[in-house]
Amino acid sequence: MSALYARLLGRMPIGWLQLVHNKGRFAAALAGVAFANILVFVQLGVLGALTTSTVQPYSIFKGDIMISSADSNTLSDGGNVARHYLLRALSVPGVTGGTPVFIGKVDWQVNERRSTVLQALALPTDAVEFITPHLRSQFLRLALPDTALIDRGTRGGTPELFDAISPTTPVIYEFNNRRVTFIGTMQIGAAFSSDGNVLMSDQSFLDFFANRSSTAPNRLLLSVADGASAARTVNLLRQILPVDTLHIRSLADTMAADTRYQTTERPVGVIFGLGTFVGILVGLVIVYQVLSTDVADHLKEYATFKAMGYGQPFFLGIIFEEALILAVLGFIPGALVSTGIYQLLVAKSGLAINMTVARAIVVFLGTLAACSISGAVATRRLAHADPADLF
Amino acid sequence: MSSSSPIIVKGLNHWFGRDEARKQVIFDVSLEIARGSLTVMMGPSGSGKTTVLTLMGCLRDVQEGSVRLLAQELFGANESRMVALRRRIGVIFQAHNLHESLSAIQNVRMGLEVHGRGNIVQQDQAAAHMLKLMGLGERINYLPSKLSGGQKQRVAVARALVHNPEIIFADEPTAALDKESGVTVVKMLKKLGQNRGTTTVMITHDNRILELADRIITLEEGAIVKDEMV
Question: How near does any CA of chain B get to the CA of A20, in Å?
Answer without folding.
Answer: 8
